[in-house]
Amino acid sequence: MFLGEHQHTLDSKGRLILPSAFREPLEDGLVLTVGQDHCLTLHPRADWQRVLDELRQLRPTDSRQRMYARMVTSSAHADALDKQGRITIPPRLREYAGLTRDVAVIGADSRIELWDRERWEAYRSQAMESFAATDQPLGEGML
Q: Into how many domains does the chain fold?
């Protein structure tokens, strides 16, 4: 399980050090791909099969579902942590997420999200206001 928010910096080669608390589940490899809201999602290799299984449940005859599955899988990049706990983010994924230097590394339960720090701060600010104004649970069994 990945939790919390961490601030890190990309180096000139597009490498990012991941928080030490996040590294153990990634020791067997990871898959990085596009996520919603122009962030990247990082999945432990062991969890990637679950993601693929969910994508296979989408209907190929539905253009939105077909497009979604294509974008996730065609953008996927398998990687492994180096000895310093770094990953390399390909240029096309950095471009999608607007990652240039400062990166917010967000724990999101079964995955990690990588955000441009300014974009994350703007999103978080708006989302926290909406969250604070929420007066009803989102579904059964919610807190």
A: 1
Strand stretches in 1-143, DSSP E:
5-9, 15-17, 30-34, 40-44, 77-79, 86-88, 102-108, 111-116
- For the entire predicted model, the pTM comes to 0.91
CA-to-CA distance for 45 and 140, rounded, in angstroms? Answer: 31
Domain containing residue 123: CATH number: 3.40.1550.20
Q: Is residue 139 part of a domain?
A: no
Which residue in 111, 97, 121 sits closest to 14, CA to CA?
A: 97
In a domain, 34, yes or no: yes
For 39-67, write each residue's pLDDT tens digit.
Answer: 999 999 989 999 998 998 989 888 899 99
